[in-house]
Amino acid sequence: MAKVESSSENMMHDSEEPVKTRILLAACGSVAAMKFESLCRSFSEWAEVRAVATKSSLHFLDKASLPRDVTLYTDDDEWSSWKKIGDRVLHIELRKWADIMVIAPLSANTLAKIAGGLCDNLLTCIVRAWDYSKPLYVAPAMNTFMWNNPLTKRHLEAISELGITLIPSITKRLACGDYGNGAMAEPSVIFTTVRLAYKPSPANGSG
Ligand SMILES: Cc1cc2nc3c(=O)[nH]c(=O)nc-3n(C[C@H](O)[C@H](O)[C@H](O)COP(=O)(O)O)c2cc1C
Predict the structure, then answer these.
(1) pLDDT for residue 191 is more than 60
(2) Separation of 56 CA from ligand 1 center, angstroms?
(3) Helices and strands, counts by H and E, the chain
(4) Domains and CATH numbers, the chain
(5) pTM of this prediction?
(6) Active site members
(7) Pocket residue to mutate for ligand 1, from 31, 52, 54, 56, most atoms within 8 A of Cβ
(8) 25, 28, 59, 121: residue to mutate for ligand 1 pocket, most atoms within 8 A of CB
(9) How remote is the CA of residue 31 from the centroid of ligand 1, in Å?
(10) Percentage of residues in the chain with pLDDT exceeding 90?
(11) CA distances from 42 to 8, 48, 77, 123, 187 (A)
């Protein structure tokens, strides 16, 4: 696992060259995680990318297919990188490192956990520690029956109040064969939404 080298407060190299925007991409356990590789490729052409995967998402995404310069962190890294008091805590380091976080796909499970403040894995610990002066986007993906459940609306309202930006799901034929809303927005739409909205502060480079 690559070390998380410095915090986002230290945004210039020694040469005073502006550093690239730092994007933390995260995937949950949805079939849409098969598109995570494409998302990583789009973002890594613009920004420095680190990735976080939940345990369930690893059933759908192929670690080996991710761009070579994208480090993927899992729950195992959280614990293997911490041995004693004084060691860095991975979820806090990644929270400091990132300028932007994008969770795509966001599962119903992780949506509910974020809405309720639960933090029992690397991804949700980062979100629970998030600094809401920095953008955090979510692109939900779930079956229409889950999407239409009243809990989804309740949880989306709760995360909106926190300052999390929704990249809306779309209506189409889902992987399971059902037709309806709940599919993840296309990776190109997710990338464009984040890229166009990002306004770098004067301290953090060209954007
Ligand atoms: C084949 C399969 C596909 C699934 N697709 C989705 C999905 O699209 N959206 C969703 O919210 N959950 C989906 N699930 C259920 C989640 O994987 C499950 O709730 C899991 O606990 C999510 O964990 P995570 O939020 O930590 O990633 C799927 C499960 C299976 C077995």
Answers:
(1) yes
(2) 7
(3) 8, 8
(4) 22-200 (3.40.50.1950)
(5) 0.91
(6) 91, 176
(7) 56
(8) 28
(9) 8
(10) 79
(11) 22, 11, 25, 21, 8
